[in-house]
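HUMAN: I'm a chemist; might I ask for a sequence paired with its structure tokens?

ASSISTANT:
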Amino acid sequence: MTNSINEITGADFILACGTNTADCHPVISYKVNQAVRKGAQLVVVDPRVTDFAMTASEHLQLKPGTDIALFNGMMNVIISEGLWNREFVENRTEGFEQLKEAVAKYTPEYAAEITGVPADKIREVARAYAKAEKATILYTMGVTQHTCGTHNVFAVANLAMLCGQIGRESTGVNPLRGQNNVQGACDMGALPNVLTGYQSVTDPAVREKFGKAWNCTISEKPGLTVGEMMSAAAHGDIKAMFIMGENPVLSDADAGHVVEGLKKLDFLVVQDIFLTETAQYADVVLPAACFAEKDGTFTNTERRVQRVRKAVEPPGQALADWEIIFRLATAMGYPMSYASPSEIMDEIAGLTPSYGGISFARLEEKGIQWPCPTPDHPGTPFLHAEKFSRGLGKFNPVEHVPPDEAPDAEYPFILSTGRRLYHYHTGTMTRKGMLGEFFPADYLEISCEDAERLGINDGDKVRVATRRGAMEIAAKVTYTVPKGVIFTSFHFAETPVNMLTNPKFDAIAKIPELKVCAARVEKA
């Protein structure tokens, strides 16, 4: 997030795109509700009529996979009506003329043809966003999990810069992270092309710095993403794999392909707190401590580094992740001798400029938001106050590209996936105990019109098929989804929807198109 969670309450306009915030980020949803009670206008962009969308002053129910056309249509209105922030654009950005040229054809009427959102609604929301004193954009995987996901984010950033709605309190471009330490994992280099703090492996100075610190040679060649690893395993190009705290057998697109890859490995190690569906394919399972059983830090969605303190001892042979890693590295001939997570944090600070001023001693008092370059720096509540990291913000004009799969005679529906309020990711933790009892099974949302046409009643078992497989699931006849769209979550192993989803990925970020694939539904 460019801004802080608490700043949401100070916004007077909130544009929530591809996010069912109430179900997936309930704490942040509470902040949105506070802002609305203070008079903020909430606009939700979502193909589904979620409870969150029903609380909005305006719900733009676009066709799945048409975000760019909507954002370009809004920018067309803002530019043609002279509502853009000239001072910000002239002093803080570059590439405006190229953007202006690119969005010229996306009149509200043209955008409406693509998105299904009425032209007058596009005009109304565009004007309100541009005229707001403090407007913030929230988005999640409804924006990113497309073959054009990176370009969707470019379009969001273009809109924010065009109106100068960034670099100030209660504004910004704010992706809401899906898990408690996704931000921290990325910060620590859990991406194939960077080391800690997003320092590129292609930079010789970066490789030299880390090579000296770790007494090794850092490759200049970026690694593979999760999806690329699974494909490489299926083709026999990867022989062994170490999976930590991840359950790709349920969470990855075209999960049958994941199983195929895991089965072909010579050796698979899974490190987790429970015996997940993925761990059942492992040759060795290493039992890890959960959050309450170890010391360390998490970095949350607003870039806040926070202390985690051990409350209870881990059960059995379970160890903290860092202890497992350093014992394994030492056994493999690379000695590691950390005595505590505090020492590891000191090393992080020494190698990572954005974490340079963060230590356990400072975190004892409160969490700190990076960038925090020095020990006396207070942290950074919002980014880009005076300039962008590259200097001038660059407009990246993008064009609407349809999803990889479109409905046809054989597969006439669009299948989309997401989360439910009561569960978390693949249900590894939440399906154990009371939450599992309260919400024990999932269902397929189907529109009243489609259900009537197919002779499907509420609660009937239906068979959902795509080009990758099929599954059976109970139907829920509802107004939540429009005609031609079906929806379910990926929490349940009994209804493994990601066996059906499309693995076609974004060319830049390599994120698969989990939000759109062509499907067929029939009564089981």
About this structure: Residues 5-176 form a domain with the Dimethylsulfoxide Reductase; domain 2 fold (CATH 3.40.228.10). The radius of gyration is 24 Å. The longest strand covers residues 469-478.
